[in-house]
Write a structure and sequence with these properties.
The complex is a heterodimer of chains A (155) and B (175). With 155 residues, chain A is mostly helical. In chain A, helix 1 runs antiparallel to helix 2, helix 1 runs parallel beside helix 3 and helix 4 crosses helix 7. Chain A has seven helices and no strands. The radius of gyration of chain A is 23 Å and the shape is elongated. The longest helix of chain A is centred in the first third of the chain and has 18 residues. Chain B is mainly alpha-helical and 175 residues long. The relative contact order of chain B is 0.09. The mean pLDDT of chain B is 89. Classes of the chains: A mainly alpha (155), B mainly alpha (175). Chains A and B meet through helix 5 and helix 6 of A and helix 1 and helix 2 of B.
């Protein structure tokens, strides 16, 4: 049973053009035994959907397995997440928010607000930013560079 | 670090941050935490306008004492920060880059492009080392350095001092 599942997996991974035929093979091969029918077809379905989901973004190393780790960070995703969190903050006007907009000079925020923003970034990315370095981060661009520096993200 | 001491503003901000973190550990539900965080922010904002440094220092001291009595016994510590579960977990796997020089030639032949580039980087390091040392000797005050901050590269086209250690530092999560 497990060997049959692994066979299906190897076949779908090795020949993605034939994944439809592999799915067709899954249905009649699982028909004789009712118990593995659902796991086999589910495995084939998940392989298919995973393959479909992987194909748009093959360039980042997503093809390697993640084993319950988070998807790898890229500069684009870090920037999007930082700007998303900043837009959620109610003291910031989302229209004039740029990556180079200074918190104090352009957006008119306070140092307490800056601390809150850094705390929101810590919550978003899951690691702590020490106080000495947090007080120097004054634009979203600097925050993105700092996070990329800490997380070893580069092009 | 910028200077050898912490300014009053920095102390206030640090107190604010750690009190918010401990408040987050106490109020686990997000809306309750948000409510009490806003109350705390209002308290900080009221006393923000104080110009007299004596009174401000006394208020800071009172705030620190209040923080000490109200702190959480087991606050949430991020995994990567000191005291967290994953702090220095991968330190033992971080091999320094000079270990690459000790590879066997057959192993080095498996990555010819990388090692040829590495030779060029090492040449660059040899050339810039004297300038880095000269810059550090010029810019360090007499009696030793005050803090760990390194000065940036002053001249155009020069490399900042001790750049090799920074550039070839091991990754955060060594595979």
């Amino acid at each position: 049973m497990a060997a049959r599942v692994l066979q299906q997996c190897v076949r779908t991974l090795a020949r993605p053009s034939l994944r439809l035929s592999a799915a067709n093979l899954a249905a009649p091969s699982a028909a004789p035994s009712a118990a593995p029918h659902r796991p086999v077809s589910f495995a084939a379905d998940s392989r298919r959907t995973r393959w479909l989901g992987l194909s748009p973004v093959p360039s980042v190393g997503v093809l390697c397995r993640q084993y319950s780790d988070l998807p790898p960070l890229t500069l684009e995703t870090i920037k999007d997440r930082v700007l998303y969190v900043l837009k959620l903050y109610d003291k910031i006007n989302p229209e004039n928010l740029q990556t180079t907009s200074h918190f104090m000079k352009d957006l008119g925020l306070d140092s307490l607000d800056q601390v809150e923003i850094i705390m929101a970034m810590e919550d978003e990315f899951g690691f702590e930013i020490p106080d000495g370095e947090a007080e120097k981060l004054m634009t979203p661009e600097e925050i993105v560079q700092y996070i990329a520096d800490k997380k070893d993200v580069y092009e | 670090m910028a200077a050898a001491y912490v300014t009053h503003q920095q102390k206030v901000l640090r107190l604010y941050k750690k009190s918010l973190r401990h408040l987050e550990s106490w109020c686990i539900f997000r809306d309750k935490y948000r409510f009490y965080a806003c109350m705390l922010r209002a308290r900080f904002d009221d006393s923000k306008e104080e110009k007299d440094l004596m009174k401000a220092s006394m208020m800071l001291k009172a705030g620190e004492e209040e923080f000490w009595t109200n702190q959480h016994p087991q606050p949430y510590i991020f995994p990567e920060s000191p005291g967290g579960t994953s702090y220095e977990r991968y330190e033992c796997y971080k091999v320094p880059e000079w270990a690459l020089d000790h590879w066997h030639p057959s192993e080095k032949a498996q990555y010819p492009d990388y090692f040829s580039k590495r030779e060029q980087w090492k040449q660059l390091r040899m050339q810039s080392w004297d300038q880095e040392v000269a810059q550090l000797q010029a810019e360090t005050p007499a009696g030793g350095p005050q803090n760990e901050a390194l000065p940036p590269a002053r001249l155009e086209g020069a490399l900042p001092p001790l750049w090799w250690q920074y550039v070839t530092r091991p990754r955060e999560r060594p595979t």
